[in-house]
Amino acid sequence: MTKISISLPGELLAEIDELAEQRKLARSALVRESLERLLNEEHQQRTLARARELYACVAAEDMALAEAHLPLTVETIPPYLASTAEKEGTTS
Can you tell me the distance from the alpha carbon of 77 to that of 83, in angstroms, rounded to the nearest whole number? Predict the structure, then answer.
């Protein structure tokens, strides 16, 4: 494992030491776990942001496809509705 040196404000170091003691962990273990958690959360956020971008593109493509097929829908739906109305006996 690689060792690094960092500078921290005294108050932050005191909080780290207090939490490490409560959890019965070494200071470095607590800092390592905290950084791993932070990096995992960042990765998840980036992944979710990318997924949202992709889903937005898919939604836009779906809308464009639906709009491109509107003329077919117009041609198809009225006869269907008319035949449904006739079967139900609700024609005017």
Answer: 10
Six-digit token string for 43: 């990765």
The answer as to whether 46 is a domain residue is yes
The verdict on pTM exceeding 0.85 is no
d(CA 76, CA 80): 7
Cα–Cα distance, 67 to 60 (Å, whole number): 10
Q: Which H or E run contains 21?
A: helix 10-22
- Residue whose pair of structure tokens reads 């491109």 in the numeric block: 68
15-62 pLDDT, tens digit per residue, is 999 999 999 999 999 999 999 999 999 999 999 999 888 888 888 888
Structural domain total, the chain: 1
Q: Which domain holds residue 17?
A: 10-88
Measured CA to CA, the distance from residue 65 to residue 43 in angstroms comes to: 33
* Encoded amino acid at 85, one letter: A
Asked whether residue 40 is assigned to any structural domain, the reply reads yes
